[in-house]
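During the no-cost extension, the postdoctoral fellow (Dr. R.K.) reprocessed legacy sequence entries with the updated structure-token encoder. One reprocessed record is reproduced below for audit purposes.
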Amino acid sequence: MPLTRDQMADVRLIIKQTIEELLSDDKFLTLISDKIEQKLGIKESQQKMVELEKQIMDLRHAKNKLECDLEKFQQHARRKSFRIVGMKESHGTSVLEQVLTLCEDNLKTRVLEENIENCFWLGRKKNEQRSVLFTVNSHNLKMKLLRNRKLLKGSGITLTEDMSPARYKLYQKAVQKWGKQKTWFYNGEIWVKLRENKLQIKTEEDLNNMAQYCSHVLFRLLQSGRELFILV
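Re-encoded structure tokens follow.
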């Protein structure tokens, strides 16, 4: 026997009230949620996602460590190497002879042929001026040449330590940010001078931290009422 209109209305009301009661029951909702997650495998998928994210993070850390170790190895291999920029190529004279003469006449340092492990022009011979790469056989000789390179001032020739590609890139970023007068590379390390402080730059994170350091210094100066200097 079919239901009357009033009976249908009562049934709809009972269903509505029942649904509202169930939807307001936290235990029921939790049960439904668990059943759906179990059916669809959501929890397992979420757990796998967490595990995959952890594996990715571990791989990134391992990659960064390998890159860091490789860069240190590359720089260590260059620890006694120099680049000469601005030295003209002389026909009839070997590059080794030119370097030995430069060391003795300009750098006031006597260097023998046996003190040089390798010495060659960089790049192909074209119209533009080429640089020279040479390596000495002792740390003491390297440091003496570094101390005396100031004697090249005004000669148009510069003597710099050889850098790994990654370290050179970091050095260039430091120069762009803080200027060449406040940035230097010495004995394999990048340094920046801000006011009375000398700070070593090892990573790009150090560059970002220096910006925060400058903000902190300026804030302290404002508090103390001292004269402000713009740090460029």
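The CA atoms of residues 70 and 76 lie 10 Å apart. Residues 226-232 have pLDDT under 50 and may be disordered. The remaining legacy entries will be reprocessed before the final report is submitted.
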